[in-house]
Amino acid sequence: MQANRSILIADDEPDIREFISYNLTKSGFTVYKANNGIEALELALVTKPSLIILDIMMPEMNGFEASKKMRENIALDHTRIFFLSALSENMARTSGYQIFVDGFLPKPISIKELLGRINQILSEDIN
To answer: Cβ-count burial of 68 within 10 angstroms (0-12 exposed, 13-18 middle, 19+ buried)?
Structure first.
């Protein structure tokens, strides 16, 4: 696993952000939180987390737009990104934005499944 164990969560639902944050912190991760895609992009550029978890449907800048902008920024080259969304994976894929992310998990989530996915993504080599 990478030495950097920081994760940025971007979701406009405060309860979801807090639920995920609490469980990730308990599992040894440093957690940053954003309310929307604009905050997520700004915070990611400052904190350079190892992983960003993005909701797709957020105000101001959605997860699709945020992931595209993050992938365009060289400072975030080594940051993994995945969507956590109430949208189905098929609906997300039809947008064409899957090329900007490393994975997808549907809501509602299981913390066990989320932690398993996080550990899997962070253990993969980045090309």
So the answer is: middle
- Matching residue, tokens 């997860």: 63
* The pLDDT of residue 27 is above 90: yes
Tokens 């809501």 belong to residue: 107
Q: Look at residues 85, 17, 79 and name the one whose alpha carbon lies nearest to residue 56.
A: 85
What CA–CA distance (Å, rounded) separates 53 from 94?
Answer: 20
Residue with tokens 């904190």: 47
Could you tell me which residues are beta bridge partners of residue 84?
105
pTM over 0.90: no
**Amino acid sitting at position 12:** D
Q: What is the mean pLDDT of the chain?
A: 87
The 10 Å Cβ neighbour count of residue 119 is 11
User: Quick one: pLDDT at residue 1?
Assistant: 37
Cβ of 2: how many Cβ atoms within 10 Å?
12
β partners of residue 42: none
> Which residues, 6 or more positions from 65, have their beta carbon under 8 angstroms from its beta carbon?
37
Rounded average pLDDT over 121-126: 76
